[in-house]
Amino acid sequence: MREIKWWRLLSLVVLAVMWWGCAPAEARQNSHDACREDQLDSSTVNAEIHFRQHGRNYIQVSSDMKVEVPVREWSMASQLTFSTESPEYRTAMHCLLRGSDNSLHSTEWRNGNPVATADGDKVTVAYSSYTWIKGYGDFQLGPWKITRDKKKKDKWEVILQPSTLQKARWNLMAELGGLKFKHYGRPWFADKAKAVWATQPLERLCPAADPDRRRKPLDYLCVEVDLPWQRSLALSWDESLWKPAGIATWWVFASGVLALAALRARRPYVSPAFGTPGSRWRVGGFRGGRGEGLASSVLQWALLSGAVALTLLLLIQQLEHPHVKLRWRVICIAAGLTLTLVARPWYGGSSPTAPNAGTDESDDSKGHRRRQAYAVIGFASALAAIGMLVILGHQLFRLPPGLEAKAVPFRGKVGYVLMGLATVWLWLAAMAAWAWRFTREGGLVPARWISKWDKAPVLCVAAVSALLGLIAGGLLWCLHWTLENQWKRSAWLSEANLSAKHEEYVNSYLANFSFTDLTWIFTYSWLLAGIALLALLHFRFTIQRAQASHKRENIPLGPDKPDLLLIAALFALTVGMRGAKFASNNAQYGIWFALDIISLFAVLAAGRRWSVLGQMGDQFYMHTPGTNNRSELLEKAHQYRNLNHQLQLLDQGRASGVTSEQLEDQLRGLRQWLVSRCLKKNPPFQISILDVALAWGPDAHWWSNALRAARLAFCFGVPASVALLYLEMKDLYNGAQLRLEPTAIPSVVAGFIAYQTAWAGLGFVLGAVWRLLPGRRSTARAWSLAFAYAVPALLGALLNRYTDVAPKMLVLYSVLTLLILTLTSLWLDTSTLSEERQYWPSRFALLLSIHRLRGLSGQVAWLLAQVAVVVTILKELIKR
Fold first, then answer.
1. What does the radius of gyration of the chain's CA atoms come to, in whole angstroms?
2. I need a surface site. Which of 50, 75, 493, 587 has the fewest CB within 10 A?
3. How far apart are CA 689 and CA 390, in angstroms?
4. Considering the entire predicted model, what is its pTM?
5. Do the strands 139-141 and 144-148 form a parallel or antiparallel pair, or are they unpaired?
C-alpha cells in the first residue's frame, strides 16, 4: 500500500516537472529570483554614451554597452548565443539587461538585437541603442537616463540608472560631443570632450557629489549637461506657440497670394508684351461665364484652406482633453463633407472659347449636373453617416461614450476602423473634388473625361470612391504595420509581461487614426493651390488665343502682369516650398514664400532691360509675333549659322568658291533685315539673329513654351528626386521612422510626387518667362531664374549656419535646381531649331552645332562644374 502511494507521489512530481519544462520561457521568468542576478556579480560591463549635436536639428544620443558574462557562474549564459527568436534567448537577455523592469521603453531605438559571442569561458553581449532629444521629458536608452533639470531648465542630466548588474565591474565613458558638462564623482580621466570612470563595483556618485540632491537609490552616476542656445532654441520652439504660428503664417501668406492672384486674374488682358510701355489693346477678360466662376472658386478655396489650416492648428493644441477629441471627430467629419459639397464638382460653366456667353444651360446640361450632384452628395453623405453612426451610436459597437482608447471587443475595433476610414475618405474626396473643379473649369481636363462624367456620373463617382477607399485603406495598413513595429520596439523583451497593455495600445492608435492622417493629408493640399494657379493661367491663355483668332490679331508673346503674379505664386508654391523644408525652421516659411515672389519679380524687372527681346525694342514685339514671321526668323537664323560656319571653314583653308567679302556682305544683309524688323532702330551689335531666334523659344506662345519646358524638367528631375529621397531616408532618424511612423511610407510616395511637381513647376516657369529673362545665352537665362531661387536659399543657408544646422541638403537642392534649369534650357535650344534635325544625325550633334558659335567650351565647362558640385555634395552626404 505504501509503495502504491509512493509511486503516485513520484508520478505527480514527474508531471509537475514536465509541465514546468513545457511552459513558455516568458512565464518562467516572472519570478525575479529565476534570473539569478547574484550570479552576475563577477561580470564586466563597458558602457559608453555619445552625444552628437553639430550640424543637426536635434541632438542624437547613442549608447554602446558590452557585458562580459562568465559561462560557469551564470546558468543562463549559454542561452544568450541561441537564436534571437527563441524563448531561451529572450529570457536570458531580459534577465541580463532588464531584470525586473517590464516598462515600455518608447524613447529607445535599436538597429537590431544585441549580438552575443562566445569566447572560451565567457559570453560577450554587445547592446547598442540610440535616441534623439526632441522635446522636454525623460529619455531612457540602455542603462542611461537623460532628464531635464526642473530647477535649471537649460540644464540636462545624464544619469546612469541600470536595472541589473549593479554589483558588476563597470567601466564608463561619457563623450559629450562639444557640449559643456559638469561631472560628479572621481573620474579616472576627464577633458573638455569626455569623462571616463572605472568603478568596482558601482558607486553612488550623485549623492556624494551633491548631498542636497534627492536621488533614487539606483542613481549611480550623473553628468550635468548645458545645451547650447541653438539646441535649446530648437527644443523651446517645438514646445512653444511660435511653431504653429509659423505654420499659420505660411498658410496666411499662401492664401493671401492665391486670393490676390484670383482677383487680379479677372482683369482683361493688356497686349503689349512683357508689360512694356507703349500702345495697348485688350484681348479678353473673365467677365461672366466660366472664367468668373473659376476665379471665384480659387478665391473661395484660398479662404477655406486658410481657415481650415488655422482650425486644425488650434485643435491640435488641445487634443489632450477627451471632450476636445470627441468634438474634433465630429468637426472633422462635418468639415470633410462640407469641403466636398462646397467644391461642387458637378459645376461646369461655359466654354472657354466663348467666355462671355453667360451661364445659360440646355436641359441636357442641367440633367447631367443634377445626376452628378446626386451621385456626389449620395456617396459623401453615406460615408459621413457611417462615421457619425460610430460616434453617436457608440453603444452599437460597445464603445465608451467618449470613444476613449480602452479594452474594447472586436466590434469596437470595427467601429474605430469605420470611423477613421470614413473621415479620411471624406477629406480625400474633398481634395479630389476641388482638384476636379479647378482642372475642369480651367480647361485642363481631356474632353473624353468630361463626356464620360456627363454620361455616367454614378459610375465615375463609384470608381473614384473605390480608388479613394484603397488609398484610405493603404493608410490604415501603414498604421497597423508601423503600430506593431512600434510595440515590438517599445515592449522589447517584455511582450509577455505587457500583453495586457497591447490591446489598449492598439485601440489608442485606432481611435486616433484620423487625427494623424488628416494633418498629413492637408499638409499636401498646397498641390491644390498649384493646380488652381495653373487652371487660371490656362483659362487666360485660352481666352487670349480665342480672341486673337476671332479678331485676327497677333497672339501676345509674354505674360501680362496678372499672369506674372500667377507664375510667381506657382514658382513659390512648387519650387520654393520644397527648398524651404531644408531650412529647418517653420517660422520662416511665410517669409520664404514672399521672398521667392519678390526675388522672381526683381529678376524679371532686370529682364525688361537686359533680356534679348527687351533690348530689341517695343516695335520688334509688335511686328514679329505672327507664325509666318517666326518661320522667316528661323530661316534667317539658319542662314546666319551657315554663313558663320563657312567663314570658319574659309579661315581654316577648307572652303572654296566663295570669298570672305561675299560672306560678310550676306551677314550684313541679315543684319539689315534685323534692323528693318525693329523699324530702323539699331539693336545692340552683340545681339545676332540666332540670339533672337533662341530667345523666342520653340513655340509661338509663351504657354506652349512653358508646357514644353515643364515636360523636359520633369524628366530631368527624376534622378534628382530619387537622390534627394535616398539621402533623406539615409538619415538615421528618417530611416528609423520609415518602419515606425504611420505616414512615413506615404510621405515617401508623396515626397517623390512633390519633388517631381517642383521640377515640372520649375520648367514651366522657365518656359513662361523665357523671353523675359536677362542674358543672351540659354544657360544665362537658366542662371537668372536660379538666382531668383538662390536669394531666399542663401538666407536659409545662413540661418542654418547660425543655428548650427548643416545646410548641405539646401545647397544640394539649389545646385540641382540650377542643373535642371541648365539642361532644360539647352534642350529648348534644340527644340527651337528642331527643323534642322534633318541635317544632323542626333539632337546632341544639333546642340553642339548651335553652341559652336556661342562659346561651346564655356557651356560645357559650366555644365560639368554643376555636375561636379552635385557629385561632391552627394559623396559627403552619403558618408555622413
1. 35
2. 75
3. 72
4. 0.86
5. antiparallel
SS3 state at 759: helix
Write out pLDDT tens, residues 175-234.
888 787 776 666 777 777 788 887 767 766 665 444 445 555 456 777 888 888 777 777
Q: Which amino acid is at 490?
A: S
Smallest Cα–Cα separation from 223: which of 193, 252, 253, 259?
A: 193
Q: What is the mean pLDDT of residues 757-774?
A: 93
Answer yes or no: are the C-beta atoms of 625 and 554 closer than 8 Å: yes
Retrieve residue 248's grid coordinates.
499659420
Taking residues 428-444, what's their average pLDDT? 92
Q: Say if residue 800's pLDDT is above 90.
A: no
CA–CA dist 642, 737 (Å, integer)? 60
> Is the predicted pLDDT of residue 855 greater than 80, yes or no?
no
Residue 706 vs residues 434, 535, 697, 721: alpha-carbon distances, Å: 24, 14, 10, 21
Could you read off the pLDDT of 535-565 as tens digits, one per residue? 999 988 888 777 766 555 555 667 888 889 8
Q: How far apart are CA 818 and CA 780, in angstroms?
A: 11
Which residue do the cell numbers 537623460 mark? Answer: 146
User: Mapping DSSP to helix (H, G, I), strand (E, B) and coil, where does residue 63 land?
Assistant: strand
Cα gap 476→424, rounded to integer Å: 10
The cell for 703 is 504657354
Q: Give, in degrees to the nearest 5, the angle at Cα 394 between 390 and 396.
A: 95
Q: Which residue has the cell 458637378?
A: 346
Contact indicator for 817, 762 with CB cutoff of 8 Å: yes
Closest CA to 754 of 584, 581, 533: 581
Average pLDDT over residues 793-817: 84
Q: Would you list the DSSP string of 219-232?
A: --EEEEEE--HHHH
Q: 114: helix, coil or strand?
A: coil
- Residue 180 — φ and ψ, nearest 5°? -75, 135
Distance separating alpha carbons of residues 116 and 118, to the nearest angstrom? 7
Taking 90 as the threshold, does the pLDDT of residue 718 lie above it? yes
Range 129-155 average pLDDT = 83
Instruction: State the chain's mean pLDDT as an integer.
Output: 79
What residue type is 861 in one-letter code? A
Alpha-helix runs per DSSP H in 491-555: 499-511, 513-523, 526-551
- Dist CA 104 CA 852 (whole Å): 68
Vertex 729 angle, CA 760 and 127, to 5°: 175
Q: Label residue 202 left, alpha or beta by phi (over 0 means left) and psi (-120 to 50 means alpha).
A: beta
Helix (H) / strand (E) containing 798:
helix 778-802
Give the single-character DSSP code of 672. H
Q: Are strands 139-141 and 169-175 parallel, antiparallel or unpaired?
A: unpaired
22-61 per-residue burial string, b: 16 or more CB within 10 A, e: under 16: eeebbeebeeeeebebebbeebbbbbbbbbbbeebbbbbb
pLDDT for residue 191: 78
Residue 359 has pLDDT above 70, yes or no: no
Terminal C-alpha separation, the chain: 80
pLDDT tens sequence across 310-332: 777 776 666 555 555 777 788 88
CA 340 to chain centre: 25
Q: How far apart are CA 23 and CA 15, in angstroms?
A: 12
Cell of residue 449, nine digits: 473625361
- What is d(CA 529, CA 597) in angstroms, rounded to the nearest whole number? 15
Q: How many residues does the chain have?
A: 880
pLDDT for the residue 852: 65
How does DSSP assign 425-489, residue by residue?
HHHHHHHHHHHHHHHHHTT-S-HHHHHHHHH-HHHHHHHHHHHHHHHHHHHHHHHHHHHHHHHHH
C-alpha distances (whole Å) from 306 to each of 324, 589, 654, 758 are 21, 15, 69, 22
CB-CB contact of 380 with 341 (8 Å): yes
Buried b (16+ CB within 10 A) or exposed e, 609-624: ebbbbbbbbbebbbeb
